[in-house]
Amino acid sequence: MNLALMRVMAEARDTILIGIYRILLISVLMLSVAHADQKENFLTSQGKKFVRNSILCAAVISAIGYADYKEIHDANKNQGLKKVAPTHPIQVPEKEKSFGEIYNIRLLDLGSNSDHTFGISSKGLSDKNTNFVATEIKSALSLYPPHFLESTVRSIYAGDNVINDHIEIGGIALPEQKIAIRADQITRISFQRVFHHEVAHGLFNQFRLSFDQERWLALNPRNFKYHSSGFMFIKSGEVNKPNKWVVEGGAFLDGYCTASIDEDFAKISENLFLNRSEFWKQVSGSRSLQGKVALAIKFYNQLSPVFTETYFRSISHEEGLASNP
Asked: pLDDT tens across 148-186, in order?
């Protein structure tokens, strides 16, 4: 059982126990009022005994519940303090360490830090990919204002052959401000695409109230419903099947966008940061995509005035972005 699940259990237990305690107290008060309506002096010896025993029962149940809650809470706390392996930063050339100083983000080897990544595993980062990862992340982070991601991304875990529930993945946004990303068998543009996609997930989860969901959903075809989640979409095999909504609706960049609203948003976001001509051409042919792009830019602009359509259209990547590392 991971730390996040234990926290949820503890909070749920606490809420349930408080509810039980309140019900017992209300029951005692209601019985007391009922006795008062029937007799002038309802606190007879029998009535006093009933009230006393009810209150004692409530106190005992509350005490037991608090003890159980404290045990879970302490275990939850201790799990985060002990039996956790130290993190292993990736050793990169001195010139590549500046992004950590500027953005306050740690770059870590996923293979050596599986205790910190909620079940996501990896063979570890090979030596040949170490400099590639550091260089690409530095390039990707340069597109965000300094300190912009401090509250959203604190650690980036990179590794070869990244696995989630027996399925190979390109990247994933994790709890506790973490991102895991694959570094092998990937082109530079694919790495950049995955990085900005997962950062978009982190921002979406953290600042969801700033996202105009109602207007976004209104841009989708009538009767359309998102699948469930990105991972479940992949696991079900739907990602490899023809998707009628991409053709008929014109509201999605590709089939993966139909997995969930956050995947739809993240896909738009990654393409904004890549600024590829084919993306803007596809957008120009769909009013729905134009609306989604506008809403995505509005979301980013609310977080920082730097992000405007002019800014995204001015992003320029160096030559060779589509080449292998």
From this structure: 888 888 888 888 878 887 777 788 888 888 888 888 878
- Range of the structural domain that residue 47 is part of: 3-79
Select from 139, 236, 134 the least CA-distant residue to 181. Answer: 134
* Counted domains in the chain: 3
Are both 127 and 32 inside the same structural domain? no
Of 186, 216, 235, the domain-final residue: 186
In a domain, 15, yes or no: yes
In a domain, 89, yes or no: no
The CB-side HSE value for 248 (13 A sphere, CA atoms) comes to: 10
Q: What is the pTM of this model?
A: 0.66
CB 322, CB 274: distance < 8 Å: no
pLDDT 10s digits, 261-273: 999 999 999 999 9
Question: What distance in Å separates the CA atoms of residue 308 and residue 201, rounded to the nearest whole number?
Answer: 19
Residues 6+ apart with CB under 8 A from 253: 246, 267, 268, 271, 279, 282, 289
